[in-house]
Amino acid sequence: MCGGGGDQYAPEGDLVIRAVDATLQLQAAWIAEVTTEGQNAARARGQRLGSPPKLTPEQAELARQMHAAGHPAPSIAAMLKVARSTIYRLVRQPPTPSRTEGRHTTPLEQGLKRTA
C-alpha cells in the first residue's frame, strides 16, 4: 500500500498512531489523577509537601535579626551554610545591587533612585 511516493501513507499506520496517542493521553491523565489524590491524602495526614526547609525556625529568626542589625546577607548565608537566595527570600528583600556597569535595574530600584 505504501509505495515510494512522498504524499502517500498507509491508513492503517495512521490508525495505529492515533491509538497509541490516545493510550498515552489516558495514561497521562491517570498519572495526574493518582498524583493529585496522593498529595491530598498526604495533606490530610498533615504531611508537608515539597523540599524540607533549609533553616530551622531558630536559624531563620537569627538570620532576620542579623539582617536587621545590618549584617550583609552573603555573610549570614555563609555562617548558616545556605545559599544567599535563601536569606534574601527569608528577609523578603532583593539582592544588593552589583557594582558592574550596565546592570539591569528593577522599576523599584529606579523609583528609589529618583526620590533620593
Give the oligomeric state of the chains in this entry, treating copies of one chain as homo and distinct chains as hetero.
single chain
Q: Give the number of helices.
A: 5
Low-confidence stretches: none
End-to-end gap: 78 Å
Strand content: under 5%
Mean of all residue-level pLDDT scores: 81
CATH C-level class of the largest domain: Mainly Alpha
The total of beta strands comes to 0
Which fold name fills CATH's third level, the topology of the largest domain?
A: Arc Repressor Mutant, subunit A
CATH architecture of the largest domain: Orthogonal Bundle
Tally the structural domains. 2
Rg on CA atoms, Å: 27 Å
State the share of residues found in helices, binned by percent.
55-70%
Structural class: mainly alpha
- Sum up the overall morphology in one term: elongated
The main pleated sheet reads as: none
Order of helices and strands: HHHHH
Overview of this protein structure:
The protein is mainly α. The chain has 2 domains: 39 residues; 45 residues, Arc Repressor Mutant, subunit A, CATH 1.10.10. The protein is 61% helix and 0% strand. The protein is built from 5 helices and no strands. Helix 2 packs antiparallel against helix 3 and helix 3 packs across helix 4. It is elongated.
